[in-house]
Predict the structure.
Amino acid sequence: MKRSIDKAALLEAIFENSEETIIIVSLAGEILDINSGGLKLFEYDKEELLGQKIEVLIPERFRPNHGAYREDYAKSPENRAMGVGLELRGRKKDGSEFPVSVGLSKAQVAGETIVVGFVIDITFQTEVRERLKQVNNELEERVRERTMELARMVNQLEDTNEKLQKAEIEVREALMAERELSNMKSRFVSMASHEFRTPLSTILSSISLVEKYQEADQQQKREKHINRVKSNVKYLTNILNDFLSMDKLQTGKIMVQPEPFKLNDFLVDVCEEMHDLLKPGQYITQELDCDEQVVLDPKLLRTILSNLVSNAIKYSSENDEIILRLSMEGEYVVMRVKDHGIGIPLEEQEHIFERFFRAKNVINIQGTGLGLNLTRGIAELMNGSLDFESEYEKGSIFTITLPKKIES
Ligand code: ADP
């Protein structure tokens, strides 16, 4: 059997026992009723509120606008939450405020539209929300700080890493320089002990002989040995000069001092100077074709040409022709020194400009392995280049290319 419930009693019970505040208000905003939950929340006695405007329950500063909202609502009342997106506040009798959420619904009672307001005190939720917001802000701040700290640390690490890499490169370079130096030292010692011995013992024996040739008619013999001493001293001086020039070149101490001069005449002079070195029957053919003036460093150019011509003489046989060819190619002067001598073995050609390097077919010929390295360095100092072509046992051509004009 269906149980029947007294609806009026039920509504009364729900109204009175509800923890939530339920306020009944007329469309004109007059409080018609309020449950005990509401009285407890707003701390009023019922008689104090009945007949009052609903605005008595909201803080004074919101009251002026509230009237207008209420009138709007009265025009088309419907069930909805109040003030969505706004922070609604209630006001207790003692004037203290607290956050609330309000739901509105309309009802028709005895032909009159009334509004039922459900008010919930959301102080706790608001505090929790505020606290959450605060904690969130604090967390964000901490994350920001940590991120900055991390970025700083990454920067520092990158810095340190860069410094370490630099230090590593410096150490490696220093090590290589050290190795190169000790390598040079030992090559110099072995070159010097080999190359100095013969001229020194020749000088010694020639001087001993000069001492012995005391007769007046032995003048010719004396002169022969004196000349031998002279040429050996010159040879030793040349080696030392090459060595000093190499050091100067390496430390950037060679200064280029260009001046204008006629290349044809200059080359004739250089060949003249080399005459003493020629072996019996050897001769230099000059194919010169430059009436123009050039602006180059004559001292440095002389060093280059002397080196190349003396090599051509040294590494070719008696009666061989040596050709010195000069031509102009655009803005460049090209000088070629050609011989028909012993040539350079193909497999050794790639090392020919290395300091102290000497090919295996020149073991019995005097030399230091410094000249070509120095010559190329000087050519490059004058913005030029030194190249060669050579065929073993057939001969070699060394080519210097220099700009016609260089600046100091
Ligand atoms: P050096 O002549 O004192 O040994 P260089 O540096 O002038 O030193 O030459 C290096 C090496 O190149 C020589 O030892 C030789 O093996 C080779 N070379 C240079 N010029 C010639 C040349 N005209 N003919 C053959 N070999 C040459």
In short: The two ends are 125 Å apart (CA to CA).
